[in-house]
Specification:
By secondary structure, this protein is mostly helical. It has a single domain (3-212), classed as Hypothetical protein af1432. The chain contains nine helices and no strands. The radius of gyration is 18 Å and the shape is globular. The structure holds adenosine-5'-diphosphate and nickel (II) ion. Adenosine-5'-diphosphate (ADP) binds next to helix 7 and helix 8. InterPro entries: HD/PDEase_dom, HD_domain. Residues 22-136 form the HD/PDEase domain.
């Protein structure tokens, strides 16, 4: 099996599928997840080919880009059976893509090391400076405000246990999801990468509140 050729074909397929997306699932998100997944895979001794393929395909089945989750998964399965011959590889990649599309940012456990690697890479792309950028892009695309001091958590809540805030500002998304991701990382190396990005987001929020409150007593 010519792995570089199959990977190149997968890249083309994904670019075609995700090219127009403006909600955080564009080609460059996939590209970063793939690079990070490969880096984690080397360190964690996971199968780099499976991680590459699953990372490339992980968002193609996303419900937001398809009539339904099932339709999205069928699209990925059809592509895999047309391009791969080994049943076991197809089954493994499908398992990862399926778990990723059904779990979202939640807690659905990944059953294989390769799945854990790709999930970590996807979560890492929601953190740090890139994570901040994607959150504001997503909120803008949905018509949501950056921040509302009347509904957003106050600065002091950073010191407390992270709570769920259901209100839909970009800043709230840090509390409802992003600041929890560091604790959900599957691999030791993924966790290590998450630390720096997590701290960056805390610093970003500190600075954000500081500027917001500039001049107030
Ligand atoms: P992925 O499937 O790649 O993990 P998601 O579909 O969960 O990504 O989200 C895409 C991007 O938009 C991520 O960076 C995520 O943090 C951000 N995002 C998701 N939901 C919200 C929200 N309610 N408010 C702001 N940003 C969001
Ligand atoms: Ni993703």
């Amino acid at each position: 099996m010519n792995q570089p050729l199959i990977i190149a074909r997968a890249e083309e397929f994904v670019k075609e599928q995700l090219g127009q997306d403006t909600t955080g699932h564009d080609w460059w998100h996939t590209h970063r997840v793939r690079s990070t997944a490969c880096e984690i895979a080397e360190i964690e001794r996971a199968d780099v080919f499976i991680c590459t393929m699953a990372a490339l395909l992980h968002d193609v089945a996303d419900e937001k880009l398809n009539p339904s989750k099932e339709a999205g998964l069928l699209k990925v399965h059809t592509w895999l059976t047309a391009n791969l011959t080994e049943e076991e590889q197809i089954r493994h990649i499908m398992l990862i893509v399926e778990t990723m599309s059904f779990s979202g940012g939640g807690g659905e456990p990944m059953q294989t090391l390769e799945g854990q690697v790709v999930q970590d890479a996807d979560r890492l792309d929601a953190l740090g400076a890139i994570g901040v950028a994607r959150t504001f892009i997503f909120s803008g695309a949905k018509g949501r405000p950056a921040y509302d001091p009347e509904v957003s958590p106050r600065e002091e809540s950073l010191q407390k246990e992270y709570r769920d805030y259901s209100k839909g500002t970009a800043v709230n998304h840090f509390y409802e999801k992003l600041l929890k991701l560091k604790f959900l990382m599957n691999t030791a190396y993924g966790r290590k990468l998450a630390e720096e990005r997590h701290d960056f987001m805390l610093n970003f929020l500190d600075q954000f509140y500081k500027e917001w409150n500039q001049g107030r007593q």
